[in-house]
Amino acid sequence: MQLGFMSDLSSTAADLSTVQSQAQSLNSILRHNWNLKEVNALFAMPFSDLMFKAQTIHRENFNPNEVQVSTLLSIKTGACPEDCKYCSQSARNKTDLEKESLLAVEKVLEAAQRAKEMGSTRFCMGAAWRNPKERDMPYVLDMVKSVKALGMETCMTLGMLSEDQADQLNGAGLDYYNHNLDTSPEHYNQIITTRTFQDRLDTLTNVRSAGMKVCSGGIVGLGEKAVDRASLLIQLANLSPQPESVPINMLVKVEGTPLANIDDLESFDFIRCIAVARIMMPHSHVRLSAGRTAMNEQMQAMCFLAGANSIFYGCKLLTAENPETNQDIALFEKLGINTETVVGDTERSDNIVKTAIADQQHSDLFYNASV
Ligand code: SAM
Ligand code: DTB
Ligand code: SF4
Predict the structure, then answer these.
(1) Fewer CB within 10 A of the end CB, N or C, for the chain?
(2) Exposed (0-12), middle (13-18) or buried (19+): which is 27, by Cβ within 10 Å?
(3) 345 burial level (CB within 10 Å; 0-12, 13-18, 19+)
(4) What's the confidence (pLDDT) of residue 22?
(5) Residues with C-beta less than 6 Å from any ligand 3 atom
(6) CB count, 10 Å around CB of 175?
(7) 120: domain range?
(8) Ramachandran region of residue 237, left (φ > 0), alpha (ψ -120 to 50) or beta?
(9) On the CB side of 206, how many CA atoms lie within 13 Å of its CA?
(10) How much distance in Å is there from the Cα of 87 to the middle of ligand 1?
(11) What's the CATH number where 175 sits?
(12) Selected residue with higher pLDDT from 16 and 195
């Protein structure tokens, strides 16, 4: 009788664990057919319920106490022909920015080495281009190969890419290509008119077909409506496969841009956006991206709770300020967060970097890059 009771109990426990694991896989299921009604409903959930759902999904897929850290470098700054209304680098915006030609590979490598020493695992190189010109390609390919040789993951964001350019970057070993959708298709024309939303999707297709990982997200706080944030996330989540990395940028308001004086986005709306991105893209790294200097530690902690598990690390983004590294280290310590590691061959990397720097010793620091 007792045995029977025990065996009933153990079969109940087995059933429970099956139900739990089914519930778990249902929670984390990857879907590419999200619709506005259900995403609006996620945004409308009571805050605590939304955070609980996002954190549950986060824990099913990631170590909740690990954050991936990437460092950014602007390899070509300003004088961009595009008209992105948020951007310090658009030639149409009258900002104080000093423009710079494409950096020499040696300079890029030095910055990557510093980033690596700081504990960054991915080095992201950004250029203020509509798209790279053919004459730029040998330089950027060289940058990819050299940074990769350090044992770091590489990422670039150079604007639109043709199929051939995407293949070349993939051939050089580029791991990730960042190209953001920026905002919803419905709000898009308020923000950029010099390239279409479809152009952006086409670049993402070229990146994916070439075999690279996709980093794509957007900006919030551009004066969009709540429904635009839902619509942007639908565009991202319904990509198949979903982007491996999803940067959610809070607008950095830059003097001289048309959005310099726009109203701040309510903090909870930003956190909700991270949580909904986590729920819709359970396997992606969601990056708490630009705008952290305007957030206090508590807000950033809420973003990690909502499922953000990547940040830009280092005191500068492309042109804007980012928190100082010692502030980030202190925050991670307070929260018990560790950084994700990438295993590489350090000795080999050190030799390659020394040779590459020696090779470059006599080259100019800048060359006359395309705008
Ligand atoms: N020129 C390339 C392009 O636009 O594709 C690459 C560099 S661009 C600066 C990369 C992304 O940074 C933009 O798509 C946008 O999402 C983000 N970004 C630029 N300026 C920003 C700002 N002021 N605040 C927040 N995000 C910004
Ligand atoms: C992304 O989504 N955010 C980064 C990166 N991709 C290239 C850029 C943020 C730029 C912030 C404003 C600036 O530094 O000029
Ligand atoms: Fe800025 Fe990139 Fe737009 Fe140029 S294309 S204005 S760099 S966001």
Answers:
(1) N
(2) middle
(3) exposed
(4) 54
(5) 80, 82, 84, 87, 89-90, 128, 159
(6) 22
(7) 64-369
(8) alpha
(9) 20
(10) 7
(11) 3.20.20.70
(12) 195
Any domain includes 321 = yes
Q: Which residue has the tokens 């930003």?
A: 270
d(CA 336, CA 330): 10
Please indicate, yes or no, if residue 59 is contained in any of the structural domains: no
Q: How many domains does the chain have?
A: 1
Q: Among all chains, which residue has been given the structure tokens 């919030």?
A: 220
Mean pLDDT over 165-189 rounds to: 97
Give residue 358's pLDDT.
44
- Percent of the chain topping pLDDT 70: 84
Atom of ligand 2 nearest to the CA of 88: 15
Whether residue 251 is contained in a domain is answered as yes
List, for residues 264-276, the tens digit of each pLDDT value: 999 999 999 999 9
- Residue-wise pLDDT for 341-365, tens only, equals 864 444 434 443 344 344 444 344 3
Find, among 72, 52, 56, the residue nearest to 64 by Cα: 56
Q: Is residue 314 a contact partner of residue 71, using CB atoms and an 8 Å limit?
A: yes
Query: Residue 248 forms beta bridges with which residues?
Result: 218, 288
Q: Are 65 and 337 in contact (CB under 8 A)?
A: yes
Residue 200 lies in a domain: yes
Cβ of 290 less than 6 Å from ligand 1: yes
pLDDT, mean of residues 153-173 = 96
Q: Is the peptide bond before 138 cis (omega within 30 degrees of 0)?
A: no
Mean pLDDT of the chain: 87
Ligand nearest to the CA of 77: 3
Query: From the CA of 303, how far away is ligand 2's center (Å)?
Result: 18
Is the pLDDT score of 11 beyond 90?
no
